Amino acid sequence: MLNVPSQSFPAPRSQQRVAAGGRSKVPLKQGRSLMDWIRLTKSGKDLTGLKGRLIEVTEEELKKHNKKDDCWICIRGFVYNVSPYMEYHPGGEDELMRAAGSDGTELFDQVHRWVNYESMLKECLVGRMAVKPAVLKDYREEEKKVLNVKGGIKYGIQHSTSDVFSPVTSCNLDPGPYKIGTHLHIYIFSCLFLWAYLSLCGMLPKSQVTDTLAKEGPNYPSYDWFQTDSLVTIAIYTKQKDINLDSIIVDRQDDSFRAETIIKDCLYLIHIGLSREVQEDFSVRVIESVGKIEIVLKKKENTSWNFLGHPLENHHSLIPRKDTGLYYRKCQLISKEDVTHDTRLFCLMLPPSTHLQVPIGQHVYLKLSITGTEIVKPYTPVSGSLFSEFKEPVLPNNKYIYFLIKIYPTGLFTPELDRLQIGDFVSMSSPEGTFKISEFQELEDLFLLAAGTGFTPMVKILNYALTDIPTLRKVKLMFFNKTEDDIIWRSQLEKLAFKDKRLDVEFVLSAPTSEWNGKQGHISPALLSEFLKRNLDKSRVLVCICGPVPFTEQGIRLLHDLNFSKNEIHSFTA
Ligand code: FAD
Ligand code: NAD
C-alpha cells in the first residue's frame, strides 16, 4: 500500500498534509508537492519579479503587496514574494494570506517554526526590511548613551559584572584557579558599535536586533570562568534549582564555544570565540542544589589565558525558546538495522565536541540537503532497545542517539536518509517538545496509545516508567498498526510484558490478515473504554497518545468523552 501514490496529494498521513500542532491541511493540486516546488526553484525562473535584485522594503511598500498574485511576507526581517509558492503551501493559500503584506514571523513561529523557510524560499527573497526612521533615531540615542556610560553596557550584547573578556590582572596559580581582574570594555564597545552600525544600515534583520536585548537583574543568569594550568572552567549560574544534565547543550566548533542552558521557557546562551585552542572533549557537571553548571575544557597548551575570548552572536542573552532558531550539529551514521519491512533503527553519533541529551518525550529535527534544498523533518529519539540490560557501545556522555524511522518509498526525506552510508553525516537539531518528566510524579496508572511510528516517544517512556517511578502500579500499551508485519519491536514488547507483570500490551490491527485473532479496527469508544480502566477509582493516571494526526485527534476526543481531564492526557505533536 505504501508504494501506491494516492490520487489526492499529499497522502493522508503525509507531513505535507499534516500541520504541526494538528491542524488540518488542504489537498494540493497534482504537481504541487514539495519536490515540485524544489524543481521550480531550481528552474532559473524569476520568482520575485525583481530579476535577482535585492531591495530594502519599507513598511508602506510591504503593505501594498497583499494580494494572492502579489503577496509579500516578512519573516524575521526578510521579505519574500510568496505568490509563486501559494499553490505549493501545505497549509493552503488562505493561511499564507493571513500574513499578506505584513510581518508574518509570529504566525510562522506559531505554526512551523522548524520549517527551513530560508532554504525553501530563497529564490523568493525580495530583500530586507528597511529600518524605520524613528527606530534609527533611537539607535543613535542609545549609541550616545552607551558611549557615555562607563560602568556597563546598556544595550545590545550585555555582560554580567563578572565579565571575562578582560585581561587577567592577578593570578593565583597555586592552589586553585586564576582570578579575573579589571574589565576592559573597549572590545565590547566595538562590538556594540558594529552591531548598532549594522542595524542602522539595515544589515541585520529587525527581530534579531530586538531579540538580543537582555535584562540584568537578580534572577538573570550569569557566568564566570577560571583556569588552572591545563583546564578552563566556564561556570554558569542559572539561579534555578530544577536543572540537570538535560538542561545544558554545549557545542564547540573550531574556536567557537556555544552553551545553551534551558531555563523554563527561555534559553540562556553563552557564545564565545575562544581566545586559545582547546582539546575536542570536555566535561559537564551540574550542581543541582545551587543551579550551577560547570563546563571543563582542556587546554591544548598549558599556558595561562589572558582572556576567555570574544562574544559571538546573542552571547549572554536570555531568549524565549520560541524566538530562537534551531541549532544543528553534524552527526555520523554509525549503524542501520532493519526492524520491520519498512522501519529501521538508525544510530547516530554526536560529535565529540557536543554535549546533548534528548529528554524523554522530546524530538529533534534531522536535516539533509535534497537536490540543493535543505529539508528538515522531526524524529523522536528512542533507546537502542526496550531492555535496560542492552549494552550500548562504550562511549562517554551518551554519544549515541537512536531513531526508529519508517521509510516511505515515495516520501521526500526518508528515502534520502535511507540512502546514507555508514560514516555519512546528517545534521541534528537541539531537542524540542512539551513533555515534562514531572507529569510522572506519583503516577499510578500509565496508559500509552500508539499508532505506527507514534510508538517512538513511548519507548523511552516505557524504559523510564518501569525503572524510575516507584508509585507505578500498571502500564498498559495499546499499539495500533495496519498489519502484523508493521508492529515495531513486537517480540521485545512481548518479552518485556512477560518479564514485568506491571506491563500489559495489546496490539490492534486495522488491516489484518484472516489469521489474526487479536483486536482489530481503528481507535474507537469500545476499544478505549474497555482498555482504560483505572486501577483504583482515584488513582493518579496519565494517558500518552501519539500517531497520525487524525488518530491523535480522535483519541483525544474519546478520552475527554471518557472523563479524562486535560492534565491526564499528553498528546505528542510537533
Ligand atoms: P513525506 O514526503 O512526508 O511523505 C509521507 C507520505 O506521503 C508517504 O506515504 C508517501 O508515500 C506519501 N507521498 C509522498 N509523495 C506523494 C505523492 N506525490 N503522491 C501521493 N503520496 C505521496 N517518523 C518516524 O518514522 N520516526 C519518528 O521517530 C518520528 N518522529 C516524529 C516526531 C514528530 C514530532 C513528528 C511531527 C513526526 C515524526 N515522524 C516520525 C514523522 C516524520 O517527521 C516524517 O513525517 C516522516 O518520516 C515522513 O517523511 P518523508 O519526507 O519521507 O515523507
Ligand atoms: P500507519 O499509516 O501505519 O497507521 C498506523 C495506525 O494508525 C493504523 O493502523 C490505524 O490504526 C491508525 N490510523 C491511521 N490513519 C488513521 C486515521 N485517519 N484515523 C484513525 N486512525 C488512523 O502509521 P505511520 O505511517 O507509522 O504514521 C505514524 C504517524 O505518527 C505519522 O503521521 C507521524 O508523523 C506520527 N508521529 C508523530 C510523532 C510525534 O508527534 N511526536 C512521533 C512519531 C510519529
UniProtKB/TrEMBL annotation:
Keywords: Endoplasmic reticulum, FAD, Flavoprotein, Heme, Iron, Metal-binding, NAD, Oxidoreductase. InterPro entries: Cbr1-like_FAD-bd_dom (IPR008333), CS_dom (IPR007052), Cyt_B5-like_heme/steroid-bd (IPR001199), Cyt_B5-like_heme/steroid_sf (IPR036400), Cyt_B5_heme-BS (IPR018506), Cytochrome_b5/Flavoprotein_Rdt (IPR051872), FAD-bd_FR_type (IPR017927), FNR_nucleotide-bd (IPR039261). Residues 1-17 have a biased composition (Polar residues). One of its GO terms (biological process) is superoxide metabolic process. It comes from the Eukaryota. Residues 54-130 form the Cytochrome b5 heme-binding domain. GO terms for molecular function: cytochrome-b5 reductase activity, acting on NADH; heme binding; metal ion binding. Residues 1-26 are annotated as: Disordered. Pfam families: CS, Cyt-b5, FAD_binding_6, NAD_binding_1. Belongs to the flavoprotein pyridine nucleotide cytochrome reductase family. This is Cytochrome b5 reductase 4.
